[in-house]
Design goal:
DNA Primase, Chain A
């Protein structure tokens, strides 16, 4: 029995999304009004991105998976993934460019980063961005919910390997590392066009930092959130930078984050860094 056959047998409504099925959460203690659970179409592994309930569909319903068919489907998925790695992802169908100024970001900045809307459960209520690697291929999409929905950020496909983004032209050999995509976009919008997003402090490693050096970067300004957690992470990144031969410094604005800086503050910082 396949995952799809099991869902149909149990009268569970589902929506195919990439390599997953989107369903209302199976957690009996979670009244899920909007489908927020993803089930892998091959393995049946599921997780709710709202309440974090997770498990395996076959175990949940007391059924056994067809192991031979499972191995075949996993092999087909592996071939498909390899093909995607070589050509990159495509934009979802029926996308519309985002033309607003949410969070006081200029429309032309949103256009530069290819922001879009799409009436799909994965993307609805979000401003979405294609994430490109050094070769220009789209390797993922990052969607930011604008009305308080969860999760706040959604990366698809799930488990995508996120690069440092975007590829920038250093200013005087420098780049600025920030945590989130809106931290980066806000700085670009207001004149610091050498900002790079890490997609979280745990997404940084020495190999990625070494790539910056190959691209002509000499030094890195680490600009994480001003709270204790952000500054602790900044110190770890500084150590990694030094190990790969990049000069590094820490930008610390107490009780502030790069995504909330007004234009005057960004210009003041730019003047301080680069004259």
């Amino acid at each position: 029995m396949t995952v799809e056959e099991l869902l149909r047998q149990r009268d569970v409504y589902f929506i195919p999304k990439g390599g997953d099925f989107l369903v209302s959460c199976l957690n009996p203690e979670h009244p899920d009004k909007n489908p927020s659970m993803r089930i892998d179409q091959i393995t049946g592994i599921f997780q709710c991105f709202s309440c974090e309930y997770k498990g395996n569909l076959f175990t949940y319903f007391g059924e056994k998976a067809n192991q031979l068919q499972l191995r075949r489907e996993l092999l087909k998925k592996k071939i498909k993934d390899k093909r995607s790695e070589s050509i990159g992802l495509s934009f979802p169908k029926n996308t519309l460019p985002y033309v607003g100024n949410w969070r006081n970001i200029k429309p032309e900045t949103y256009k530069r980063f290819e922001a879009f809307h799409q009436a799909d459960p994965d993307y609805i209520g979000r401003i979405n961005f294609p994430i490109r690697d050094i070769s220009g291929r789209i390797v993922a999409f990052n969607g930011r919910h604008t009305t308080g929905g969860t999760p706040k950020y959604m990366i698809s496909p799930a488990g995508a390997k996120m690069p440092l983004f975007p590829i920038v032209v250093p200013i005087q050999g420098d780049v600025i590392l920030v945590e989130g995509i809106y931290d980066m976009i806000n700085l670009h919008d207001k004149g610091l066009t050498n900002a790079i997003c890490t997609f979280g402090t745990k997404n940084i490693n020495e190999d990625k930092l070494q790539m910056l050096s190959i691209q002509g970067v000499n030094s890195v300004h680490v600009f994480f959130d001003g709270d204790d957690a952000g500054q602790h992470a900044a110190e770890k990144v500084k150590e990694m930078c030094e190990r790969v031969g990049l000069h590094t410094s820490n930008i610390h604005l107490k009780q502030s984050d790069p995504g909330a800086l007004a234009e005057g503050s960004v210009q003041k910082l730019k003047s301080k860094l680069y004259g």
